[in-house]
Specification:
By secondary structure, the chain is of the alpha+beta class. The protein is elongated, with a radius of gyration of 22 Å. Helix 2 runs parallel beside helix 3. It has 2 domains: 127 residues, Impact, N-terminal domain (Ribosomal Protein S5, domain 2), CATH 3.30.230.30; 57 residues, Alpha-Beta Plaits (2-Layer Sandwich). The protein contains 5 helices and 10 strands. It starts with a strand and ends in a 5-residue tail after the last helix.
Length: 189
């Protein structure tokens, strides 16, 4: 699985219609709604704003697509097919269309929306998705430095530290590395 870290856009004219592709990272449906609201605000006079998104949740993958008034299956679905084909998660891809006076037909619309989605996905910086886990530990003060060293090797970091009689630490690291960390700090879990 892959994801994008930042918002990106591309633009193209196809038979006098202006197509603007936008890709944005979104971890929740609320973030998707916020991004869509922003797009409607940024492009208030657009003829159509079709979109698709896919999110990784605790219950599996959630995806949706919307044709935005275009004929059924000609806008949202071609956008989603490119998201799914690239195995992207936690992403919103929208295509904003300004009608240029030339009707494209169902096949032309499908190609235009799909092509714009493909271009914006290819233009974005895409990274491998690494699932992260959060672990709570209670440590003695002399264990902090070995923990920091272990986290550095395992690709993790400290989220929170509370210093008292002992140190309560909340760390985040790749899920696949949790077992290795807990082998070293098993008594502190």
């Amino acid at each position: 699985m892959l994801y994008v870290k930042s918002k990106h856009s591309t633009e193209e004219i196809i038979k006098k219609s202006r197509f603007i592709g936008v890709i944005a990272p979104c971890a929740t449906e609320n973030e998707v709604l916020f991004q869509l609201k922003q797009l409607y605000s940024d492009y208030p006079d657009a003829t159509h704003i079709a979109y698709a998104y896919q999110l990784k949740t605790d219950n599996g993958l959630v995806y949706r697509f919307h044709d935005a008034g275009e004929p059924t299956g000609t806008a949202g679905k071609p956008i989603f097919q490119h998201i799914d084909g690239k195995k992207l998660i936690n992403v919103l891809v929208a295509v904003i269309r300004y009608f240029g006076g030339v009707k494209l037909g169902a096949g032309g619309l499908t190609r235009a929306y799909g092509q714009t989605a493909r271009q914006v996905i290819e233009a974005a910086d895409i990274y491998p998705y690494i699932e992260m886990a959060t672990v709570n530990l209670t440590l003695d003060y002399n264990q902090i430095q070995p923990l920091e060293y272990a986290l550095k090797k395992l690709g993790g970091h400290i989220l929170k530290q509370d210093f008292a009689e002992q140190v309560r630490v909340v760390v985040q690291l790749p899920t696949e590395q949790v077992a290795i960390l807990l082998q070293s700090f098993a008594d502190n879990y």
